[in-house]
Amino acid sequence: MSVYSEALAKREWAEQHIGKLKTALAKLRESDPCTIAAKKNPETGDLTYYVEHIPIIPAEIPLIIGDILHNLRCALDYIACGLVGGNCVTSKTKFPIRLDPHDWEVSGLRMVLGASQEAIEALRRLRPYEGGDSRFCILHTLNNIDKHRLLLTVCAKNVMQTGFQSGEIIDEQLRQIGKFQLNSEVSVAVQTSDRIPFGSLYAGQKLLTVPAAQAKQQVGFTIVVAFSEPDLAKGMPVGITMFALKRCVDRAIRELAPFLP
pTM of the predicted model, to two decimals? Predict the structure, then answer.
């Protein structure tokens, strides 16, 4: 097999594990869903929604995530070895990812010594550093945690709440969830008296208080499994993140393929 074919094989294996992750997340939602309850204030009539039950997230989910990360990172490293060429590959050869763009130009490029100038320029266009395409840094950091330390920590997280009446976006905070932009068509019609908690959820946590005048409006919450750490990925839904990282690797393979033997 060629380097390109082997990198694609790793990428495709990662995609199969993304399918497994979707299945595992769906199974969790069906078998042990997060439940939200509401209490009415007898004096004001205001309705407060709170977390009634949070499921225990099985180890299967971070284990699958680790497999996805490993295979995506391997695909990139295979490409780096192909760019360098068999005679120049050393134990330090790998796809260059750095948190600091200035460091990338120094220590990062040392990882691909032997690559052609055209290949180096193609790598520069990918911008695999913080401040460039941060997906590379997220992949690198998450993979290192899973590989060298412990299973990645994940949690249940409230990413969205919606009401279904006026179709107006009330809370600007809904527009930005972690590093992912919500579709502008998401609507919120309920005027809230408190801000939405975006961190890890826990049983008994208050989510939303609706004034008595609007207490009859239908309210929905979107609860997802998200990363608890590190800061680069904290709060990001795991399903969306894995898909975004795969797209990032797809782009790298596509743009660097012309420089492979």
Answer: 0.81
